[in-house]
Amino acid sequence: MHNKNLGSTWKNFAYELRSFFNEWVNGVKADSFEKLSDLIITDQIKRKVAQEVKDHFIDDWSKLNSPDDLVEKLDDYNTLRSKRPHKEWHYDKQNSLKDDSAFTTNGNKKLYGITHNERGEPKCFHCSNFGHIARNCSIPKSVLTCREGNETGLKIINCVAKETNHASEESLSVRLVGENSDDSNSFLKKAKINNCDNVQALIDTGSSCCLLKISVAQKLKLKFERAAHKIYGFGNQKMPALTPIGRIKADIEVDNVKAENISIYVDPDDAQSVDLIIGRIWLDLPHIAYTKIGERVHSILSD
């Protein structure tokens, strides 16, 4: 459920809801009232299903968009369970049900595909220790690397590294761009979007894309299109950290270093503290280089 951001106007909230709804409808190809009705009814049924049953259908759960197909599978599942002989149940430390008869006789015992030790404690597939599962593991998970752009950190499905934003090649010359960093953060810069001044930007070498607050996009009257991508954070490729409201193409300039027609994702104001996050789609362009000398970030333009 999408919630209204604190400090956001109701007009912005309505716009975000409409954008999310249209993206969802287009994504599931609900091109008729009947299909849309089926999706809404299916969603209401799914909300009433126990997590244990959802886990049983985990491979097909997102594909079950017809209420008839869904209830048929649920009824079949309940019928199958009712025919199973009664078995002794007990609770483990995390209050999860375990079926004693489901264990095998070897040292590593299995319950519904999850490996346990002889005391029935689950095995963590991240650290290989017993007593907890991977999602509750306290050991930091390794950072995943994008298959397309070979980037770490902020990720997008169908990596934006596949997009090209090459400026025209001219005679080679290199100049050091002037410093205007905020004293408290050497990665903060004043940027221009389509030659409009006073946009607070953060140079983020860990981000593969550029992100802009929706309030800034509206203030600059930037027209954006629907974004089909979802943005992911460190180490989690299953649960999106952010669903962009839209995407624009605009020029970004920092200290007279300019790149044209950059893809920028528009997100809710509460998703980031600065107006603009400048990622590698801008930083890694052939005519742009950057380095940190002391406490200052220096950009170098080669054009």
TrEMBL record:
Keyword Coiled coil: no
Coiled coil: none
Domain CCHC-type: 123-137
Keyword Nuclease: no
InterPro entries noted in UniProt: Peptidase_aspartic_dom_sf (IPR021109), Znf_CCHC (IPR001878), Znf_CCHC_sf (IPR036875)
CDD domains: retropepsin_like (cd00303)
Highest taxon in the source lineage: Eukaryota
A Gene Ontology molecular function term of the record: zinc ion binding
Keywords recorded for this protein, A-Z: Metal-binding, Zinc, Zinc-finger
Name of this protein: CCHC-type domain-containing protein
